[in-house]
Write a structure and sequence with these properties.
Length: about 375
């Protein structure tokens, strides 16, 4: 089916992610949710925005799907709040289809070597123990609450979402083509083999390995494609908090890279809130876009000055960098990093677009302007 609308809306999710993806036609617009942000975002941004859409269309609003890219609280908390309201009959929207991975389910699918590493390190040994424990519990909470509202999980299969050596098509809609490119069991197997080569790993190495390979297993990376009425296909790369090397491997396995190992997208939602811990400069010369979207408020130094500069140095042609916050968040790093990047990389000047102070979101329309 052809689309008149293909829009990504990044809500003011503080240091997290809360996205709405709009598609379909003006007469029959559709929307799905990808992540819900940390504590407070549902109340202050996601619920009010869904209420606006419900008032404009139908009440309650029907969400085609709800995704949680991974278990971090700054992505999952708002979705839990939404589902709890659905259970109480007090939500501005309903949904019968949810997509997410839980840690418990992931453990059953891990290569044996990797699963054994996870078992050797008690959760209490991890530096980020409180965050990890909270994430595991929140994943279980979401799974249990979704069951109570009788919604389908992962297309009704309930199975782990994993792309093993190739992209996996997700049955979302006749209007969209959605390809899951990460996470990959193949990549975890390679990590497991590297791990086995270490003679006597230290406690710190073990903790770091588990944290970066096992607990991030549930992070979903998807390429969403929509064909317009004119026949042109628009593509979004949505990356959760995935590492750059994982994204490249997944895109390669799914056939999205050209003969030079590069790819261009109409929109790229930059992973992990523009953190330089997820990327190297070369990534942004390999993966380019017409529109870059970063959801961050300066907490944890995100978006980092380096990532902003790398985008400015790697982007080609006409492009725009959309950010959910410009100032006034209480985190000095936000304004400092933006100003520093624009000063050092002149190509960024005039390319940055920010959410307006009183707006709930910043929006990127790839097809017609959305009428809502």
């Amino acid at each position: 089916m052809a689309n008149e609308i293909f829009t990504l809306e990044a809500l003011n999710a503080k240091h997290g992610d809360a996205l709405l993806l709009h598609y379909g036609t003006h007469k029959r617009p559709k929307v799905l949710v990808i992540d819900g942000g940390p504590v407070g975002v549902y109340k202050n941004a996601l619920r009010p925005r869904l209420k606006q859409l419900a008032d404009a269309r139908e009440s309650p609003l029907l969400l085609e799907h709800v995704f949680v890219t991974h278990l971090d609280s700054d992505h999952i908390r708002g979705v839990i709040d939404l589902v709890v309201d659905m259970k109480k009959g007090d939500a501005p929207a309903t949904c019968a289809s949810f997509w997410f991975n839980t840690f418990d389910d992931a453990m059953t699918e891990l290569p044996s070597e990797t699963a054994e590493v996870a078992k050797t390190v008690p959760l209490a040994a991890l530096a980020s123990v409180s965050a990890v424990l909270a994430s595991v519990a929140e994943g279980q909470n979401l799974r249990d609450t979704v069951k109570l509202i009788h919604a389908a999980v992962n297309g009704g299969t309930g199975k782990l979402l994993v792309a093993d050596k190739k992209g996996v098509k997700l049955p979302l809609s006749e209007d969209l083509t959605a390809t899951l490119v990460c996470p990959s069991k193949e990549h975890l197997r390679k990590l497991a083999l590297d791990w086995k080569k270490k003679a006597k790993p230290t406690q710190a190495e073990t903790s770091g390995y588990v944290d970066t390979s096992v607990y991030n297993l549930s992070s979903l990376v998807m390429v969403i494609e929509a064909k317009s009425i004119g026949g042109k296909t628009q593509r979004m790369l949505l990356t959760g908090d995935a590492r750059g090397d994982h994204v490249l491997a997944g895109l390669g396995n799914a056939g999205f890279l050209d003969t030079k190992g590069k790819a261009h997208f109409d929109l790229f939602k930059v992973s992990h809130h523009g953190s330089d811990r997820n990327f190297e400069a070369a990534f942004f010369k390999t993966i380019t876009a017409d529109h870059y979207v970063i959801s961050a408020d300066g907490k944890f130094e995100n978006p980092s000055k380096d990532v902003l500069e790398w985008i400015g140095q790697g982007a080609k042609g006409e492009y725009t960098l959309h950010l959910t916050n410009e100032s006034g968040t209480g985190f000095a790093a936000l304004e400092k990093n933006i100003a520093g990047a624009v000063k050092d990389v002149k190509a960024l000047k005039g390319r940055l677009v920010f959410r307006k102070p009183q707006a709930l979101s910043v929006r990127v329309d790839l097809l017609d302007d959305t009428k809502f």
